[in-house]
Amino acid sequence: MTAPRLLRSGRVVAGGALILLVALSALFAPLLAGHDPSDQDLLNILLPPAWQHGGDPTFPLGTDSLGRDEFSRLLFGARVALLVALTAASGAAVLGSVLAHIAGYFGGFVDWLIGRAVEVWMSFPPVILSLILMVGLGTGADRVVVAIVLVDWTRFCRVLRVEVLVTVRRDYVAAARLAGFSHLQTLTREILPATLPLLITLLSLEMGIAVIVEAVLSFVGLGVSADQAAWGQMIADARTSFAQAPSTLLVPMSAIFLTVTGFNLLGDGLRRTLDVRLGAARSA
Amino acid sequence: MIRRLSFNLAPGRILGVVGESGAGKSMIGRSIVGALPTGFGITNGTLHLGGEDMVCLTPARRRALLGRDITFVPQEPMTALNPVMTVGAQLDEHLKRLGILSRSRRRERALQLLDEVHLPNGDALFRRYPHQLSGGMCQRVLIALAFAARPRLVVADEPTTALDVTVQARIVQLIAELQRDEGTSVLFITHDLRLASRICDEIIVLYAGRSVERGPAASLLATPAHPYTRCLQLSAPAMSGSRRSLFALPDRMPGLAALAAMHGCRFAPRCPIADADCRTVDPPDRTAGQSHLVACLHSNNLAGIVVPNHAIMAPTNTGDALLRLDHAGKRFRTRGRPFQRSGETWAVRDVTFEVGAGEFVGLVGESGSGKSTLARLVMGLEHASTGRILLGGRDLTRNASADSRHRLHWAQMVFQDPQSALNPRRRVGDIVTQVLQAGWQPMDHGRRMERARLLLAEVGLGADMLDRYPTQLSGGQRQRVNIARALCTLPKILVADEIVSGLDVSIQAQLLNLLARLRAELGFAMLFISHDLSVVRHLCSRVLVMYGGEIVEEGAVEKVFADPQHAHTRALLSSVPPDEPEAAWPPLQQSAR
């Protein structure tokens, strides 16, 4: 019943289309790319995009200072970005929401403990915390995922805990306990369906955040390994050359911008369509 | 929505508008103040105040009238006041708008107003915020605001519905008193025919947007001419005399969509004496007595309405106690400010009582008296701080997991608010058979649905409900689902917390008859929590009166109601309007609270 309603939301459709575009280019990167993303062509460095004067049609978006094809690097960078976005956001969502449900459902000392942990965790600046983690963990896409999960689970925990607290007070949760449901059954059958819309929304927003964090970490050289194409690395490479070839900076930046906008639009659209309270307020 | 409604309200009179939810009562009030929801409008007819046509007022003129000549007493007093402004500031703001320029004069007038609504210590009250006041006090402040301008018309939309019964009596009395002193006209909108007949001069009975009967309160109550009015009377449990069966109107009021397709009398599909004519002819208003109009073709034929005699056997205690509470108590810690010792509040204190097998015991008291906490103690949703709770001879005080399995088959609970008690994301069939789904070996879906079908039939719902979601049901249907779920394990005792409170009289009668039938068929006992004494009187054989967390009186229903011992029981009883029209009510000697 919710699928057609979702498709009627402009934000969901627009955001979804953007993400789909990025996902398809990531998926078919080997087919679409004309070059290997790490192939250097030192005769053709800092070429402008093909439609500009001096551009070469075999390098549609031009080349960087080592003569690597920007377009191919962009496509392969999308793979890293999406992989990190999906796994890191899901990981943070699982860790954060499990703790949130435990805290909100059982309350008391457990709630106190998890609440204080979240507060202490959140008082670290997130960028510093992830940098420290990356220094400790070493580089690589999987390390980036671990770092994002460890930093951002608190977002989920905080917001979802409140939602759980509201749901737990509903009489149907008490009724489920009286029907002999175990704690696990009550949580998964009665409470999780109520918190799921919020969880999905947060998840979508978190994916946008993960794309940025991955880019930031790659930019400072603590993200994926140097031989892998990533958007953050493309920006880092462009630092020295963007005066001569602005496209080297603009191309990866636009990719990040479009992807994050897509996730944000999708998240906002999901929030508006899935949140029962907003829907009720509008129809009243 | 509303058709062919006409009335005159003379200065200094109270007109009651009585009807169930969906009848269009509030629409009348809203069309007067010009606040109809979008999509609704006045399509024809006129509405005059004094000599002024209210339909085609300019917005500026309407604003000038509202708050001065026409004022409003709302249904939810707690939400009608601005929560971030003190009572004093809100009174002051209103008086400033009324044109009292001097600050000290405004203060003087505000104090005088608070005094008129019997709120003592006006000075202290000035600095209070609405959340620091009780519902009754908020309503008094709102009444003071409504009467501040000496308006010509006060529209009171269910002003006592959200309040305790004991408070209701005083609020009604207050409105009547101010109306008398100021000579104001009042439009009193309510669902309670008994209450309306007490304070109104004239009453309009509204059904599905149509005024079905209109007349002086006394004659309308003594000799109702419309079958709907008669059925409403017959479906409310009596407060005196012998217990009688309740007349339950079938089905419910048609919704807006159904109304459009209807011909003839709107009440015909539910009317016990309707014939073929009723379904084709829209009955015209006829005279049924002095200034008493009725819209019914068969208004002389009301004797044809007979209450089917359900056996109301007084449930008897078979001797062995099913549920026993032994000095049970529940203490809550109240959190203090930093560096302060946290306090303690007893929600339930030293409660001892028994419920025998097959016995219906009523538990009455005001809100906040600990009734619901007691129910949660019995069901193990709260742990007792003191005393013992025995169910079927087994001590459940420790609330171990083995105990809750035992409890499952002995006691179940029917919750107060079906909106909150039914998970909106699960289907009805899954909800009623929840118990069979629990644990590590749930029963398979097919067998559960079979059981669900039986349970729904038991509470009078069709099998087509199985796949619906709770939001697709009406209030009465939801409460039936709620009851069906509790009956799934065939428990020996049901704990029912205010299960008919939010429902219309005719739906309430359906449910009360249902409970009586189920009792006869299944023989369970019940702890029936309610603030409505007439319902307890109808259904229960014994009653417990709770006040401040303690049980202050206990005994057979007839005995307690006829000869109450505790002061609080007497206060509760006197706040219900008596059946006899000649008995004086509200009792005038009660002091303000």
Structural class of chain A: mainly alpha
What distance lies between the first and last C-alpha atoms of chain B, to the nearest angstrom? 40 Å
CATH architecture of the domain at 321-562 in chain B: 3-Layer(aba) Sandwich
Helix fraction of chain A?
Answer: over 70%
Q: Round the Cα radius of gyration of chain B to an integer and report it.
A: 26 Å
Largest interface: A-B, 18 and 27 residues
Annotation field: number of helices of chain B: 23
Could you explain the architecture of this structure?
The complex is a heterodimer of chains A (about 280) and B (about 600). Chain A contains twelve helices and no strands. By secondary structure, chain A is mainly α. Chain A is elongated and about 75 Å long. Chain A starts with a helix and ends with a helix. Mean pLDDT of chain A is about 85; it is low at about 280-284. Chain B is an alpha/beta fold. In chain B, the strands form four sheets. Chain B has an eight-stranded mixed beta sheet, sandwiched between helices. A six-stranded mixed beta sheet of chain B has the order 16-17-18-13-19-20, with helices on both faces. In chain B, helix 18 (about 445-460) crosses helix 19 (about 475-485). Classes of the chains: A mainly alpha (about 280), B alpha/beta (about 600).
